[in-house]
Amino acid sequence: MEHRTHRTGVIAILNVTPDSYYDGGHHLTIDVLLDSAKKALNGGADILEIGGESTGPASMDVSVDEELRRVLPALQAIRREMPAAWISVDTTKAIVAKASLQEGARMINDVSAGRADPEMFSVIAQSGCPYVLMYAKDPTPRTTKASIQYTDVIATIRNFLMQRMEAAIVAGIDRSQLILDPGLGHFVSSDPAYSFEILRRLSELTDLGPILVSPSRKSFLAGPKHLPSADRLLATLEANVMAVHHGASFIRTHDSKETREALVSITQKFSTR
């Protein structure tokens, strides 16, 4: 497994779904998908991540066959046009993960942390690929808008991630394969205060392994003006910079070019002091 130690890894989100909260329906044709993928790579993305199932509040279940129908042609097209691209697939289904890895994907991002499909850990162990375990308050891939409260949100997330890491290692996954996502937004709570607290206290999790965060355009960034997702770019970039400052190794985002520019700018400012 490769880790880019010289800079934060930027993961470009390419959802091939009709119902994702920000880019749903945008990449439903291969030409548009390829154009976005090329722009992401040219803008500084290190990884392209294909997602074939929305997991946001009110999203609908997607069958294995439908998810494969969405993901595999997108994956094959990118591999054909950009053979050197590092591709991740966002899925909770072992069959989709296995098929994607066979088609050239090199990483799997699982918002359920292996809870949705008992076969997922076996697929990841056999492949040896990087694997993202994410904290989520809900046990299924469908998240809810429940505004749950925490005594200590970081302690809760840390305990969850440690338990899932242990289960993954027992199943044969090497610890070096694991990337950890503390979750943000509705995955944690509809109370936005917790997402900001996670970003501020991210360094309390970095001893567990590489940390991935994805504040991208999420509702906790809407602020008092209740900004729609289309108007949350500035808040997203601020959250990304905060996450990197506190130890994030990977930023997953819809705005890879702007994210890379913001991170380069901040790095240059600190390096000249």
Question: What is this structure, in a nutshell?
Answer:
This protein has 273 residues and is α/β, with parallel strands linked by helices. 38% of the residues lie in helices and 13% in strands.
Q: Using the alpha-carbon principal axes, give the shape.
A: globular
What order do the strands of the largest sheet run in, or round the barrel if closed? 6-5-4-3-2-1-8-7
Low-confidence stretches: 1-5
The CATH H-level superfamily is Dihydropteroate synthase-like
Cα end-to-end separation? 34 Å
- CATH second-level architecture: Alpha-Beta Barrel
Counted up, domains total 1
Number of strands: 8
The ordered string of helix (H) and strand (E) elements is EHEHEHEHEHEHEHEH
Q: Let me know the average pLDDT.
A: 91
The third-level CATH topology is TIM Barrel
Characterize the main sheet. 8 strands, parallel
Helical proportion, percent range: 25-40%
Question: How many helix segments?
Answer: 8
General description of the model:
- The longest helix has 18 residues, at 64-81.
- Mean pLDDT is 91; it is low at 1-5.
- The chain has a single domain (9-271), classed as Dihydropteroate synthase-like (TIM Barrel, Alpha-Beta Barrel).
- The chain has an eight-stranded parallel beta sheet.
- It is built from eight helices and eight strands; from the N terminus they run βαβαβαβαβαβαβαβα.
- It has helices at residues 30-42, 64-81, 94-102, 120-127, 153-170, 192-200, 233-245, 256-271; strands at residues 9-15, 47-51, 86-90, 107-110, 131-134, 178-181, 212-213, 250-253.
- Strand 5 (131-134), helix 5 and strand 6 (178-181) form a beta-alpha-beta unit.
- Helix 1 (30-42) packs across helix 2 (64-81).
- It has 273 residues and is α/β, with parallel strands linked by helices.
